[in-house]
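User: C-alpha cells for ABC-2 family transporter protein, please.
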Amino acid sequence: MFNNPIFIREALTSPRQIRHYLIRSGYVAAVFILIFTAGQTILGTQQIQTTTIGEFARLGNLIFQMISFLQLLLVMFFTLLFSAGSIAQEKDRGTLILLLMTELKDRELVSGKTQSSLLIVYVLLAASVPVCIFLHLLGGVELAQILWMELICLITVFATGSWAALVAFWREKTFQTLAISVLGMVVFLGVVELLVGLLGPSSALRPWIAGLDPFRALYEILNPLSLNTGLEPISVSAWPSLISLAVLGVALRVFTVFRLRVWNPSRSVYKATPKAENETEKEAVIVKEKSRSIWANPVIWREIMTKAYGRKVFVIKLAYFLLAGFLLWSATSSDAAVEGVLYLGVIPPQGLAFAGIAWLSLVLANTQAVTSITSEKDSKTLELLLVTDISAKEFVLGKLGGIFYNSKELILVPVLILCYLVSQGAFSTEGFLCALIGFLALMIFSIVLGLHMGLTYDNSRSAIGGSLGTMFFLFIGIGIFMILLVQARSSFALQLQSFLVFIVVGSAALHSALTHRNPSRALAISAWLLPFLTFYAITSFLLGGTLGVLVTILFAYGLPVLSMYIPAVSEFDVALGKTTYDKG
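Assistant: Done. Predicted C-alpha cells:
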C-alpha cells in the first residue's frame, strides 16, 4: 500500500489542507466536549474532593461506551461516504478511464483509490487513542477494552471500505453508489442478526457469523459480564469478529479487482454508431427516431422521464422496501413490544423502528438532492444549462419536483408505517398527526439542504460530505442529547450550562456549513436557532409534549428551508457563484 502512487499522492497532499487539520482537531474537541457534558450530567456540581472512586469509574465507563459506539457508527458512515464518493467522482468527471489506461495494476488501482480516500478516517481513529487512554485513568475501562475497540473499528473500516469500493466501481451514478452502499450495509447487518437468531447458542458457526456484526462484537467487549456468567476469570476478546470481517473485506476486495475491467469503462462511455448493411459503403446512414415531447419545464421532465439517476433504480427501492418491512416486523414481534418496554421512558419499540426508517429515508432523499447538482457539475452539463433560457426558478423548482417525485417511496413508506402503528394502538391520533407533519417537515428540510449544499460547494466530494455530514451529526446529536437528558432528568437545571456548551458548538458548526460561500443574515439566524430549538423540542418530547414539539420543529426547520430556498430562486447567481445576467 505504501508503494502505491495513488495513496502516496493523497498522503502527501491531504495533510497540507486546512480542512484536514480542522477535521481531526474538531473531532478531538467534540469528544472532549462530550466528556465534559457527560461529566456534568453524572457528577453534577459536587466537589471533586467528595467524588468517590466508584463515581469516577461509572463516569469513565459511561463515556467510553458512548464514544465507542459513536466512533464505530462514525467510521462506518464516513468510510462509505468517502470511499464510494471518491470513486464515483472519478467516474462522473471521466478521469477513471484515464487511470485504467495507465500502467497501474488492477489491485493497485482498487487498493489505492480505497485506502487513499480513507486516510482521514485512519487519522481520526489514531486521534481517539489518547482520549480513550485518558478515560482509562478515570477507572471503569480496561486497556484491553480500548485495544479491542480500536481494532474492531479498524477492521470495520477495511471491510466497509471494500464494500463501498465494490459498489462504486460497479454502478455508474453517484446516487446509486451511495444509496446501494448504505442500504446494502444495513441489510447485511439485519441478515447477520437474523442468522444469529436462527442458529442455536451451541452452534459452532454462531461466533463467526455474529462476528460479522461489529456492533454486537463491540457490545460484548464493553459488557464482558454478559458472556462470562460463571466464576472463571473474565477476559475480553474479539478474535472471531476480526477474522470474520477481515475475510469478508479481502473477499470483497478480490472480487472487485477481478471485475474492475468488466464493469469499467461502463457501456455509457461508448456511443452506439449505426452500421450500414455493406461495410464498404461510405454513404451516411440516417436513422430516424421518434422524438419525445418535452414539458414546459425541461428540467423536471428530465428528472422524471429519463434515467437521470442511472439504470436499475428499482433495485434500491426494492432493498428499501425489504429493509423497512424487516425492521417493522422485528419491532412488532420483539419481546420488548410484548412487554411494553419504553426506550428512554417514552419511545416504544415500534416507534424506534419508525424513527430508524424515517432517518434512512431522510438520508437517501438528501443524497439524491445533493447528487442531482453535483452530477450536473461533474459532467459539465450545468454550464450548458446556464446558457439556455431556463430561469433560476425553473431550474430550482424542476430539480425539487424531480427529487420529490423520485423520493415518493421514501415518503410514502414511513407514512404507511405510521398509519399501521396508529391502527395497532401504538400511537394516539394526536401523536400520529404530530409525527406525520414533523416527518414531512424534516423531509423538506433534508431535500432543500442537499440542493443548497450542491449549489454552494464547487467540489462534489465536499458538497456530498457537507450535506450528509450535516444530516448525520444533526440526528446523532439528537440521540446523544436524549440519552444525556434521561441521565440528568433529576437535576436538569443544574446541568443546563453543560448542555449549552454542546449546543453552541453545534450551532457554530452548522453556521459554518450553511454559510460556506454566501453568508447571509437569514442563514446565520437559522443556523444558530436550530440547535437551541431542537434542544427545546427534545426536552418537551421527553416530558410528554406533542403540539409544542411540532410547532417548535416546524419553526426550527422551516426557517432554514426558506433561508436556503429564496436565495436559490431569486439570487441564483449568488447561490451558484456564476453569472447568468448576460442572457438578458
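User: Anything notable?

Assistant: Residues 298-583 form one domain.
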